[in-house]
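During the reporting period the student researcher (J.K.) took over the structure-prediction task from the postdoctoral fellow and processed the backlog of single-chain submissions. One of the processed entries is reproduced below for the supervisory committee.
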Amino acid sequence: MHLPSNILEAWEYTSTDASSTLVLPDGCRDLILIHTPGQAPQWLVTTLADAAYRVPGMAGARYWGYRFQPGAWLHESKLLQAIAQSGVQEIHETLSLVDALVQADPLVTEALHSVAHSADVPSAARSLGVSERSLQRWLGSKTGRTPGYWRAL
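J.K. obtained the following structure tokens:
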């Protein structure tokens, strides 16, 4: 299966008991399909986490997901509405919708790479040829988070 360029990875998980799972912030959002025994399948898109959080588990629940690359832009409600209207029941059936409704901006990817691999945010801004304040405003408008947030990850 070939994944669109806006997806970092496809993943799946089966809960073996009712314990919760700790999710650490990684700068990514996920499209998740949840099959819980005795319930209708549920689709959701995760938010961009600012802190670690716990997800309650249920024995036998199965999760499938696509992790979008950091900084990918998506219109959550349009994506979930398109999935609902199409009636898809399997995660792999959403690839064309994801490809159409999730955008990965190469300039955002470059800026995030610079922030991650520079000694600090001012150095990242210099390597991109912009002021630190311009980088803050631009990344804030494109990702909803500051360069400091991305650097801390």
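The committee noted the following: The mean pLDDT is 92.
J.K. will present the remaining backlog at the next meeting.
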